[in-house]
Amino acid sequence: MPLELNILILLAVVIFLLIGLYREIFHPSVVFLVSVSVLVVTGILTPSEALSGFSNEQVATIVLLLVISGIMEKMGAISYFFSGIFKDVVGYKQFMARMFISVSSLSAFINNTPIVALLMPYVYQWAKKNNISPSKLLIPLSYAAILGGTITLVGTSTNLLINGFVIDSGFEPLGIFDFAYVGIPATIAGFVYMLFIGNKLLPERKDVLEAFLENKKEYMVETYLNKNSPLIGKSVKEAGLRKLKGLFLAEIIREKKRISPVKPEEILEEGDILIFVGQTESITELLTSQKGLSLPDVCLIDNGNRIEIVEVVIPVNSYLINKKIRETDFRGKYDAAILAVHRNGEKLRGKIGEIKLKAGDLLLLITGKDFWKRAEDTTDFYIISKIHEITQVDRKKILLILSGFLGVLLLSALKIISVFVGFLFLLALILLSKSVPYSEVKRRIDLNLVIIAALSLAIGKAVYKTGTAEIVADVVISIFSPFGILGALIGVYLITNILTEFVTNIAAASVTFPIAVSVANTLSVDPLPFILAVAYGASASFITPIGYQTNLIVYGAGGYRFKDFLKVGFPMSILYAIICISILYFWRLS
């Protein structure tokens, strides 16, 4: 096949990849799988090249890191760490300072998503006691986790994946602290910015505080009039549905007819589906009222005489994304039913079973007796408001695992063993000591992440193989040529950073890594600064809620709007870029 045709096919595949990830047409792993399949079918990649990522040491290291981080979270190691940090904290700035320093420090070595998910309830609790809106604290929580992840090789899966690209390209592997030269100054600058400038740009919505902390966030809930309802034959006004506290009758669905807005004189009929929008406590009252309103089958759960409602958020890697509620088998899998849905900034309509779930959605669940047992190991959602007994912490086991974890990092930094070998040995010790059962390890393996990470290496290989990297590199150099090597470095960083704000950071890195190396080769300079520019650019997602998973977690929970991230994150993004590019340029290129 002619080289020009290969390049056109590759460009079409990359465009499909970026649009598919941005528009969430399919699950990210499916988008990557389809993209690589096309490259194999057209002969751009051989089957062995497409599958080589699955035997890549760095992909395996990512899996081991997430498994060990998850085990430490389950054992209470993370909560044990934070319990002493926030003791006797006084004042907003002091709380933010301790939160930022502790979260960024821990995120340098442990996956940041569970850290953010674990700390959110504590942040709400502290905010409630001190009459401070959580919207003044949640974006800093996410940013601290992002910045901390850029300090070490194991701080984020993106850095490990970049190292996989480095090794595949024939370069020396990156050391565990090779990222610290930029990561530490950038984290310190981000901390100072948030403490003295960024906190003033954060929204302060007292109503959002009350809405979240007291379970008053507005959800959409579906009910219907059963045949024994005393409301049948009455108008909406006569039935008292116009003055429900904390609830608004948004629409009526009658067979295939949709009635919205609902007029006060509308007569209610048997089988009418009533769609309410309201606050959590009001929805709970509606469930226990004697108004003859019933829940649809999809919302029912056998939970005895006790009603327990739990609030959860859907992360970006959840299997629930793009599934209709009635298709999720939520009841069978988690012993819970989805009662209501909240989507930040969007009005939901129609039957609850027909709603397609999206990343960032908040769900109200009616839980059964086995819910907590089934939900504790899932990554399909994160519990952000719960009534749950705190697990007793086994300090000896926690200290043993933490010591082993730090020992691996130290030996890796001294180049005595690789991170992969160290984590593999540590996991073996954890299993031999029976600290956790083997089934726990299996549950912690994120197959979707493995597929995405491995196939992203194949995408990068195709960009190299077709010569596309050299072509794009020439374009970058020509655009930024007036600024020389510094301009080229800025160009590589900006391309990566813009991509990561709108698609996954792994996709951004896989597309721009070969371009960065080609730019360096064309300029006959050290490729390391350009490689690190890709790593930092892919991780520095501050201006949109969709660029990084921790941003997405706090987005709905904090009641933020898209523009809040732009307002606070744009200066942070500029500051981070200046520090990153300046250090890389003067450190290795000037």
Kindly describe this structure:
The chain has 590 residues and is an alpha+beta fold. Among the domains are: 61-210 and 393-446, no CATH class; 216-385, Alpha-Beta Plaits. Helix content is 56%, strand content 8%. The chain has 24 helices and 9 strands. It has helices spanning 3-23, 28-41, 47-51, 57-74, 77-85, 92-107, 112-129, 138-149, 157-168, 180-201, 206-213, 280-288, 330-334, 371-375, 395-413, 419-432, 438-444, 447-465, 468-480, 484-502, 505-523, 528-539, 549-557, 562-589, and strands at residues 219-225, 247-254, 257-259, 273-278, 293-294, 309-313, 336-342, 362-367, 382-385. Strands 1, 2, 3, 4, 5, 6, 7, 8 and 9 form a 9-stranded antiparallel β-sheet that branches. A hairpin with a 2-residue loop joins strand 2 (247-254) and strand 3 (257-259). It starts with a helix and ends with a helix.
Which class do the helix and strand fractions yield? alpha+beta
Distance between the termini: 42 Å
Shape: globular
Low-pLDDT runs: 211-216, 387-391
Instruction: Determine the fraction of residues in helical runs and give it as a percent range.
Output: 55-70%
Major beta-sheet overview: 9 strands, antiparallel
Count of alpha/pi helices: 24
The total strand number stands at 9
Radius of gyration: 26 Å
Into which percentage range does the β-strand content fall? 5-15%
Query: Average pLDDT value?
Result: 81
